[in-house]
Amino acid sequence: MKPNQFLNSSKKTQIENMFDSISVEYDFLNRVMTFGNDIRWKKKMYSIAKSHDPKTILDIATGTADIALELAKIKDAKIIGVDISEKMLEVGRKKVVAKNLSDTVVLKSGDAENLSYSDSSFDVVTIGFGVRNFQNLEKGLEESCRVLKSNGVLIILETSVPKNIIIRFFYFLFSRSFIPFVGSVFSKEKKAYQYLQKSAEKFPSGKRFVSILENCGFNNVDVKPLMLGATSIYIATK
Please, what CATH class does the domain formed by 11-237 belong to? Predict the structure, then answer.
């Protein structure tokens, strides 16, 4: 789905414009909407990545670089973060400079579906809350697979819908009211947060996403549900 179904522009263009428009408040609202849990989830991504002792890491849909900065704690690792939103990258670059990590983390404008890197370039690829914004999900995942080295690891953090019917009821009740409310109070871009809520529900999470990953060239897919299944970490090897 696109952020605005009534516009003729592509989903990719709309996503770029949307994140440009919410770049300033994005980090703050992310903390609010996840009750600060996003920080803990990104630390889990770091722990998983660290266990594979990577030297080269690509963080796709890096946004304001929170995950890239977390990954910078891995000894001797070099991280490249790519995103289509230049304004999100601007926020991220300020963080990189503030933490004196310019030699470790490099942020570049880039399209997840057309990566400008050679085959088998990275030990680890990470994507945090980004795959559901791909214009073509399969193409983006195939690109991630292409740039990974043999036996390289893909780590994805993404929203999911709880399996338990009771938890799922309250999840829908919460997400359909709280997220749009927070967006309307703290942001001028109400439609952006309406899209983020709706896209979270429509994303093919769980077994459906595992099947998609396998069809895109990945193996040994492991799923780690978080927050009672409202979010998941997917770990797959090439």
Answer: alpha beta
pLDDT digits (tens, 9 = 90+) for 79-114: 999 999 999 999 999 999 999 999 999 999 999 999
Query: 């983390």: which residue's tokens?
Result: 105
Which ranges in the chain belong to alpha helices (H)?
11-21, 26-33, 37-50, 66-71, 86-98, 137-147, 165-175, 178-186, 190-202, 207-215
C-alpha–C-alpha distance, residues 129 and 152, integer Å:
20
In b/e form, how buried is each residue of 178-209, taking b as 16+ CB within 10 angstroms?
Answer: ebbebbeeebebeebbbbbbbbbbebebbeeb
| Cα(72)–Cα(224) distance, integer angstroms | 23
Give the C-alpha separation, 199 to 73, whole Å: 31
pLDDT per position as a tens digit, 111-130: 999 999 999 999 999 999 99
Reading the block at residue 65, the tokens are: 């670089």
* Amino acid (one-letter) located at 4: N
pTM for the whole structure = 0.93
